[in-house]
Design brief:
Elements: E1 2-4, E2 7-9, E3 18-23, H1 28-35, H2 38-41, H3 49-67, H4 74-77, E4 78-80, E5 89-96, E6 99-110, E7 113-120
Helix pairs in contact: 1-3
């Protein structure tokens, strides 16, 4: 479950899912160093930086929610594969003591908002 201004979203599925929605806001730049993995930091585009960082943040929030594991370090344990803003899907890995967990991401951008849905990759 997530909300941002006038929007709310709930993920209901027959498998684990996580979802997050955020408005594109410049404040995302101030907290970026708290959630950017060193490899992700190399990929931040100069143009559309706010939108890109917001997409990354919603992906990490959705992954955190689907993992249901308090204390995950966003910058160290949650790594989103390189993506561009024209992509509608992506992938990510969450690294825990139990091993690596791979996820599919679905991206939705509308009305100055980013919504990301995360679910485990079927094996």
């Amino acid at each position: 479950m997530s909300h941002s201004l006038q929007y709310a979203v709930v993920g209901i599925a027959n498998r684990p899912v996580g979802v997050d929605i955020e408005q594109h806001r410049p404040q995302i730049e101030r907290i970026a160093k708290k959630f950017l993995h060193q490899e992700e930091a190399k990929q931040v585009p100069e143009d559309h930086k706010i939108e890109w960082l917001t997409r990354l943040w919603t992906a990490k929030e959705a992954l955190y929610k689907v993992m249901r594991q308090p204390g995950l370090a966003f910058a160290e344990q949650i790594l989103v594969a390189p993506f561009s803003l024209d992509q509608q899907s992506g992938s990510a890995r969450v690294i825990t003591q139990e091993g690596n967990h791979d996820f599919q991401l679905e991206f939705f951008t509308f009305d100055q908002h980013q919504l990301t849905l995360a679910h485990p990759i079927a094996t």
